Amino acid sequence: MGKESITPRQLMIIVILYSIGTAILVIPASIAADAKQDAWIPLVLSIGLGAILTLLYTAVAKKYAVSSLFEINDLVFGKWLGRMITLGLSFLTLIFGAQDVFYVGHFMSNQIMPSTPIQAINILFMLVVIMGAKLGLVVFLRTAEIFFPWLILLFALFMTMNIPNMDTNNLLPIGEATAIPITRCVIRILCFTYIPLFITIGPIINQVSNVQRAAKGYLVGVVISGLVLLLLVVSSVLVLGPDTTAMESFPSYALAQRISIGNFLQRIEVVVAFLWLVSIFFKTSMYFHATLRGLAHAFQLRDYKSLCTPIGLIVTVLALVVYPNGAYEQKWDNHTYIPLALLIGIVYPLCVVLMGWVRGQLATK
Question: Which residue would you say has higher pLDDT here, 70 or 325?
Fold first, then answer.
């Protein structure tokens, strides 16, 4: 399977789009529910912790500069155990990708197209994801480069048009949230944004043309995405208030519905929908790429693209059953997904570093 070269700038952009992903709609509500008007505090802390995690992830990438994450598994854990771990990661990315497709169908059918069957929305979305995977990683990342400036422009306009509706009293009193809810919020933010980057960026970071610049692009992407989410959460609290933000299913969408410039420019929530759909497309595609590459490596296939259609069909069907109902979704996200994310984003990379060090010590004796 030939390697496609990618640039540090493309890596930075995909880190930003991936980290924003589903967070742009769901993070504000969950953070405001715990931290209230201090919702900005865990965002600031998570940017710093995300940068520290990035240093860990890029340290692994630099140590094994010519190897993908799945090849590192073979080198560090041995051939058989390494491939079992790769299969486990592929299964998890398959599940996570199906969850993102569910979010798309759930949002579109509830907010924009209530008369359209959720199955039709999921199928159309996955067709684009499959097409992107078949065209290859380079085409996919170049597409991200094309979309990125327009997404930044739309986000800037969205933030600017919310300024007249902002009330600084909604941020008062400052510092009322205690350590426990802030810690809970920080963990949730990390698990939904930065921690899964290890298993989605890891398989492709060795294809970046310059490893040193790749690490810098990775870090810059993490910081920029954190600042975007910080602006979004602060705007939600300023405009909607902490209580309304916590009660809304999609606060950023409700934020867009409040915009009214001169009773002329109104109802621009479709802008938020577009921002979210594009960012979640790239996030889902990264999970899809990780699944395909992991399976191709585990089963020694020459090209992962032969798996695009069958795995795409599995994801489409799985998205319909991955969350049986809203209560199950909340329970999974809070009690199952977060421990899983901590396992694959903190324990697993630390094990890679430790096992690599042990093997290095044994090799020198």
Answer: 70
